[in-house]
User: Fold this.
Amino acid sequence: MSEQALLSLQNIIVKREENIILNGASLVVQPGEFVYLIGRVGSGKSTLLKSIYADLPISEGEGRFGDFDLKHIKRKQIPFLRRELGIIFQDFQLLTDRSVVKNLEFVLRATGWKDKKLIQKRISEVLEQVGLESKGYKMPHELSGGEQQRIVISRALLNKPKMILADEPTGNLDPITGEQIITLLREIGDAGTSILMSTHNYALVKKFPARIVKVEGGKLQEMQLKQDL
Ligand code: ATP
Ligand code: MG
Assistant:
């Protein structure tokens, strides 16, 4: 038997209000695979990521992530699904009223961690992974945009996710900082976590090549770098 896919979407239909946004979209992602999601503004990239995160329901077709049936998932199972996903969304930013460590601790406690020592250890590990082990005491506003995005990535890593969903993670960053963030995501990918990242930044896609999937007309299509993006 071939290795089981981590994510498998087959002919899914996803609506927002009454509008069909994804209409027969299919995508298979293997463990450890890095995939760029491209497509025009409003094509449905965020919609796709939200359907994997069970933030939007799949109306038709089949969706599976690991052991979860995304189409029939029950409300009480959603936190367990989300523990296997690291989320880097623009509308999912740091809490501004507390330090970096307190931000990370908040997520661990909310996902069932209780042992103080283990919590501190895990926080140190993820901060080290993103190269910010000395910044834990800082408030979010004391960090640069790139540093804040690294903290958001460290937060996504807390529960050792099988896949990271990143919605335009370099969108608000200058080119050099964007390259540093993508390098970090690629390292995380090389360590075995799948990454599905939406982006409009074709310069980065060209510089850091990986599989490319385009959202167009409600469907998903594999793209080659040599084609004009
Ligand atoms: P962008 O590149 O601008 O981020 P996108 O590819 O992520 O675009 P989506 O945000 O998935 O696109 O939006 C797809 C479609 O869904 C758009 O036509 C949009 O108008 C619609 N849409 C987005 N958010 C909502 C919402 N909250 N309620 C209803 N429709 C929405
Ligand atoms: Mg979007």
User: Anything to note?
Assistant: Residues 1-84+196-223 form a domain with the Rossmann fold fold (CATH 3.40.50.300). Residues 175-190 form the longest helix (16 residues).
